[in-house]
Amino acid sequence: MSEIEKPFKSKNGKQIAKTVEFEDTLFQTYTWPAVGPVPYKGRILIVHGYRDFYPTWERFIDYMINNGYDVFYFDQRGEGKTVLKDGTKGTAFDEFVYKSLTFFIDYNLKEMESEGKDTTKLNLFGFSMGGGIVLNYLSHGELKDKVNAYGAGGPLILLHPDTLPAKPLEWIVRAVCCLPFGKTLKVKTALKMEYITGDPVYHEYLTNMSNTEDLSGTFVETRDFILRGRDLLTDASISTVSKTKPLLIVHGDDDHINDCKASELYIEKLNKIEGMKNKELVKVENGRHCILIDSEPVATISKTAVLKFFDKYN
Fold first, then answer.
1. How confident is the model over 131-190, as pLDDT tens digits?
2. What domains can you pick out in the chain, each with its CATH number?
3. Which of 155, 206, 297 lies closest to 8 in space, CA to CA?
4. What is the DSSP string of 215-235?
5. Angle between the N-to-C axes of helices 129-140 and 219-231, in degrees from 0 to 180, rounded to the nearest 10
6. For the whole model, what pTM was predicted?
């Protein structure tokens, strides 16, 4: 990764990298403190997408730290530089995904308290697979009430028809997950680069950074990120969403990976519940999947919408 020039480098942001242990996993974490001159507003905990890596977030992170927010990012289990204690990569599965997010919410609250910062100003923002995780946490998370506001970019609720695997393949994946080797056996995920971003600089960067192995995930990971997205539209999940916690979904209307129509349906279902407040969707015209690194004006519209939302509630 270090040999490939990053498309964006912060001029005044300070990155603090740490390895944090939780259960059998050594998580790679990164913190960027707010730099001012805008007064401190709060902290944003980022939950990244499938096979994501933090350099793709740096332009957005720089924007947020220059507008008053600390930003915390961790490589999820099986992703980035996070490894098991024995040095192997490990794999994510549904139960551990939420346990680890609960751990990092608590970790950030304690760190904010130790720094004398307002612990009521911790916010979550997830993208793609991470967006689906954040939305599920709003329904089922152990510490969901400790989070101030929730944001999701292009969340995985339902895959777009152009990306959705055929039903026979899905059932094969789900069947293999029941076998002992289902947690280690890998399946390739075919994502077209033209679906991800229309920005030529990021397009080239992601093309150089990615290879077939990078986009391979275990059968369990693949099963879980599809099913946890579908679960969001069930009555059981909708009914447990906090009526007052602020939520923003920002989704490109030209996303051929995660279906923007599913985000519309999710917000529509929420807002049909009596007493539901502060739930909104911003559809970004011509936005592809990675709206924060898309071509202009998509990227600017997207990051501005996120900042405006968090500013409203912090």
1. 999 999 999 999 999 999 999 999 999 988 887 665 555 555 655 555 566 666 565 655
2. 16-313 (3.40.50.1820)
3. 206
4. TEEEHHHHHHHHHHHHHTTSH
5. 50
6. 0.90
